């Protein structure tokens, strides 16, 4: 099993971020995952001996890999990129290779995330007002009270292990998980926030239906377009 968990946040006004700082974050959070994943797939397919050929690659993103908040534009960009890359490559590997993927999507976790793992962009004068959304988020991240409801890192590690273990023999393990899902939200905040966002996006998609269908050619069966 390979777990890609390296990463950090670049926090502040996206308009004021330097190209160098943004690219450095993408190199770590996205390209680091890509490079290790490419190598891991090759090893799991071509090097691991039978009968244990294959393996599991778990890429840690965040609930921020499927939604976005102010002040985290480049962090979200990197995590969304990991989500898209992982979903795509999970559909590229052949079944007989026995290579599996999972995206771990934690909410708040009591780690060094809000300490040394967080770098700040110099404020842009236009966003100085304290009721600016980015400033509100930053105050939340600096509030010690907020962390009291966050998950413990050890609990996340235990659940990750339990979910990974279900791939060994197909038995039910890890909170009722019988097979490894592509996405694993962890934490009450992650589950509730992603659930609400999923429902909101569903409503928006329904509202956009007529606009979307207005550009389609008549008579084509939409089901023919599905190759997912």
Explained architecture:
Mean pLDDT is 88; it is low at 169-174. The chain has a four-stranded parallel beta sheet with strand order 1-3-4-8, with helices on both faces. A two-stranded parallel sheet has the order 2-6. It has a two-stranded parallel ribbon with strand order 5-7. The chain has one domain (2-225): 3-Layer(aba) Sandwich (Rossmann fold). Helices cover 46% and strands 14% of the residues. The protein has seven helices and eight strands; from the N terminus they run ββαβαβββααβαβαα. With 228 residues, the protein is an alpha/beta fold.
How would you concisely characterize the structure shown here?
With 228 residues, this protein is an alpha/beta fold. It has helices at 19-46, 73-92, 133-142, 144-147, 153-169, 188-207, 209-213; strands at residues 2-4, 9-11, 55-60, 99-106, 109-110, 118-120, 151-152, 183-186.
Strand tally: 8
Anisotropy-based shape: globular
What is the CATH topology classification name? Answer: Rossmann fold
Proportion in helices: 40-55%
* Terminal residue distance: 25 Å
Task: Indicate the proportion of strand residues.
Answer: 5-15%
Mean pLDDT, as a whole number? 88
- The CATH architecture is 3-Layer(aba) Sandwich
**Structure class:** alpha/beta
Largest sheet: 4 strands, parallel
What is the fourth-level CATH superfamily?
A: NAD(P)-binding Rossmann-like Domain
Task: Pick out the low-confidence regions.
Answer: 169-174
């Amino acid at each position: 099993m390979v777990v890609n968990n390296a990463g950090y946040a670049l926090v502040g006004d996206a308009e004021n971020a330097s190209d160098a700082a943004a690219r450095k974050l993408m190199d770590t959070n996205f390209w680091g995952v890509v490079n290790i994943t490419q190598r891991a797939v090759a090893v799991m397919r071509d090097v691991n001996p039978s009968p244990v050929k294959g393996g599991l690659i778990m890429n840690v993103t965040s609930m921020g890999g499927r939604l976005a908040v102010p002040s985290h534009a480049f962090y979200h960009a990197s995590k969304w990129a990991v989500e898209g890359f992982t979903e795509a490559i999970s559909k590229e590997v052949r079944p007989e290779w026995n290579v599996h993927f999972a995206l771990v999507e934690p909410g708040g976790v009591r780690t060094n995330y809000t300490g040394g793992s967080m770098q700040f962009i110099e404020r842009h004068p236009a966003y100085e007002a304290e009721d600016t959304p980015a400033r509100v988020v930053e105050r939340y991240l600096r509030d010690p009270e907020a962390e009291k409801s966050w998950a413990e890192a050890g609990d996340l590690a235990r659940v990750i292990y339990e979910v990974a273990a279900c791939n060994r023999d197909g038995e039910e393990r890890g909170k009722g998980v019988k097979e490894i899902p592509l996405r694993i939200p962890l934490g009450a905040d992650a589950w509730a926030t992603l659930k609400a966002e999923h429902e909101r996006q569903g409503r928006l998609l329904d509202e956009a239906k007529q606009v979307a269908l207005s550009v389609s050619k008549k008579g084509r069966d939409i089901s023919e377009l599905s190759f997912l």
